[in-house]
Known about the structure:
The chain has 503 residues and is α/β, with parallel strands linked by helices. The protein is 37% helix and 20% strand. α2 crosses α6 (192-203), α3 (88-99) crosses α4 and α5 (166-177) crosses α15.
Amino acid sequence: xxxxxxxxxxxxxxxxxxxxxxxxxxxxxxxxxxxxxxxxxxxxxxxxxxxxxxxxxxxxxxxxxxxxxxxxxxxxxxxxxxxxxxxxxxxxxxxxxxxxxxxxxxxxxxxxxxxxxxxxxxxxxxxxxxxxxxxxxxxxxxxxxxxxxxxxxxxxxxxxxxxxxxxxxxxxxxxxxxxxxxxxxxxxxxxxxxxxxxxxxxxxxxxxxxxxxxxxxxxxxxxxxxxxxxxxxxxxxxxxxxxxxxxxxxxxxxxxxxxxxxxxxxxxxxxxxxxxxxxxxxxxxxxxxxxxxxxxxxxxxxxxxxxxxxxxxxxxxxxxxxxxxxxxxxxxxxxxxxxxxxxxxxxxxxxxxxxxxxxxxxxxxxxxxxxxxxxxxxxxxxxxxxxxxxxxxxxxxxxxxxxxxxxxxxxxxxxxxxxxxxxxxxxxxxxxxxxxxxxxxxxxxxxxxxxxxxxxxxxxxxxxxxxxxxxxxxxxxxxxxxxxxxxxxxxxxxxxxxxxxxx
Length: 503
């Protein structure tokens, strides 16, 4: 497979920026900006024959890279982190242009991407196993034991559009820290940021073939990566139906899945409402609600329900909708017209079923506004399913027990938030909410990149967060050694003990 034409990116993103590759012999894919449909690039796509070459190259690269000492892997990842930091504005503009993410959010993602690689650099130095106390059991007497963590080999990483840098980083960085090779298939909507990241890693000293980026259809090259015996693990972030299919197709491979959510946030009657409203607005409308831990369901205690709404609705209505490359924009657009139409239909259906549109809906020019729905019931799509758009559904609860019951009434369970100033309530909710993470006096959208992150129920399997992802991306090997007498070769004795010397 030979390099195809360069991808040329508009001066609107960054003057003079060129992104090499990707390597592919398929038909070029036209990449358009979600906000206005402007053409950004024409990108060569990979064919199934290309993927065969990619996987052969990845296997060879993995065999060499697995023997890289930890300090070398750490140094590469640290240099990559610095390169991202040095180019934050360039990376942010790529994210904003191809993903439609407001520039302020895109800058935050670029900085987080640098942080993720920095954490991976640190964790690359801490991939050792642990000492096992063999003689804790009588049969283990005179034996020493320890574990070793070894690379799995080739990891197929399939990433979504909504965080084209940082969700890629959460797959690529721990995989490289653990000594694996990676074949990355970014979302077809947002490949440019992933390609730029690959250039940073090459400049940081990552050997050829250890990271390869392929662009194309998930139904063709994605399936090939999942099912091919040359891949040892699949790391996927995306929709639950696709995740379930991957789990079926992957066979005996290790699989981690980060899937959907309809994040609940509980607001108790003793909560700091100013804080709750501020964080819920931020967590509900960042990236136009296209975050798997975006605030979606807000379950408010009946005693403060009216006061909470009176504070929330004006703040949501004040959010500015506009071009993602405009510094003042708070909310831009969804990734494509099909998603806009779907979310509009869900809002309209909820209103037909009895919900009230407190603010938002559809602007005169057809743009989707930040939306708050009241009178929502558990069965409505905007509550029961993942909206993945700029919509908050407000539900009322008579007490904490009902709020927890409403929150748990879901097939998904990624993260939840609880606002309360009562420690006992916080502890009670933390134990009883059926999710992978509970954020107290914070929204479920909160995440720092080194914490364990993942869901239960239909939200997925496995954990991200650098240390935890490296565990998933490495195999555990047990080593035990039997102690032998160094003089006789038989069972150990106290051969060196002598009678004490006389006075």
